[in-house]
Amino acid sequence: MKKILFPTDFSTVAHNAFVHALAFAKLIHGELILLHSYEWPIMDSQFAIQNYKVVYDSIEFGNLEQFKEEVPKLRQLAKENNFEHIKMSHILMDGDLMYTIKEVIQKEPIDFVVMGTSGASGWKELFLGTNTGEAIANLSVPVLSIPESAIYSKIETIGFTTRFREKDKIALTRVLKIAKLAGAQVKCLYVQTEDSDNTSKTYLEWEAYFKNEPVQFFIIPSEEVKQTIEDFITHQNIDILTMLTYKRNFFEWMFTTSITEKMSYHCAIPILAMQE
Q1: Whole-number pLDDT of residue 267
Q2: What 3-state DSSP class applies to 224?
Q3: Which of 6, 59, 91, 163 is most buried when burial is the number of CB atoms within 10 A of its CB?
Q4: CB 216: neighbour CB atoms within 10 A?
Q5: Are the C-beta atoms of residues 219 and 192 closer than 8 Å to each other?
């Protein structure tokens, strides 16, 4: 059974992402491991030593009580969305978010991480300025990010951005497995810029390789990569976008300029980032 790690702070953003995580677990026949982490405060060196334990015990107790209160709410949320059959376990850990996520991944055979993201005005912030962005850049497993405004719906069309590298072929094969479970189709996008080093021969080879799969290929000449991806999502009714992270500087290159309000609106869909 696939294992999905779901970090939560019990916020409304996390609750929304929780529904997506449950649906994803049902889709891939997986189970959820819910993680709540908390950090110890930094205390002044003049603080009385005998009071340290009192403060730490109080913080630990407070987080434990919150955890005990919130977990039943999550189970009720699962029940309300007809996901009560999804197997769930819970972890409460001290430490910053990324540290605790990495610790769990080292100890458990985690297949995916699902995280909610908020406060992002565009893709630049999503990938570079949030905990989710840090997870995408640093974790060794695929990360499914759920924007706070993304409303769960059945997955019918999965978008996949490619550069027609061999590693993309492996990633696309993995995406197609998910698509088949969902009964969805995959629409594969390549934005052909002036610097593109691929040829028509490459495109034909890929089409032949995946000829028996539910996938369409779109080769769009453009120098406006971000705008082209946005238009592709909108015009092709993409429900979830999947992409390889390559290196972090790939995202820094893609999202160094400000993102328009239109793009922020249309990109409120889940994004599955897979490490190369």
Answers
A1: 58
A2: coil
A3: 6
A4: 14
A5: yes
Q: What pLDDT score does 84 carry?
A: 93
CA dist list (Å): 170 to 31, 165, 229: 24, 9, 21
Residue 206 phi, psi dihedral angles, 5° rounding: -65, -45
151-175: per-residue pLDDT in tens? 899 999 999 999 899 999 999 999 9
Q: Could you count the other beta carbons within 10 Å of the beta carbon of residue 140?
A: 10
Closest CA to 163 of 244, 227, 99, 75: 244
Q: Residue 4 corresponds to which tokens in the numbers above?
A: 């999905």
Its pTM stands at: 0.82
| Alpha helices (runs of H) in the chain, residue ranges in sequence order | 12-28, 49-80, 97-107, 123-128, 131-138, 166-182, 200-209, 225-235, 248-254, 261-266
Residue 131 CB partners (closer than 8 Å, separation 6+): 7, 97, 98, 115, 117
* CA-wise closest residue to 163 among 76, 233, 227, 250: 250
Q: How many CB atoms lie within 10 A of CB 48?
A: 9
Residues whose CB is less than 8 angstroms from the CB of residue 270 and which lie 6 or more positions away in sequence, other chains included: 20, 144, 145, 146, 147, 150, 239, 240, 241
The C-alpha atoms of residue 271 and residue 269 are separated, in whole angstroms, by 6
CB atoms within 10 A of CB 239: 19
Q: Are 254 and 240 in contact (CB under 8 A)?
A: no
Report d(CA 69, CA 130) in Å as an integer: 27
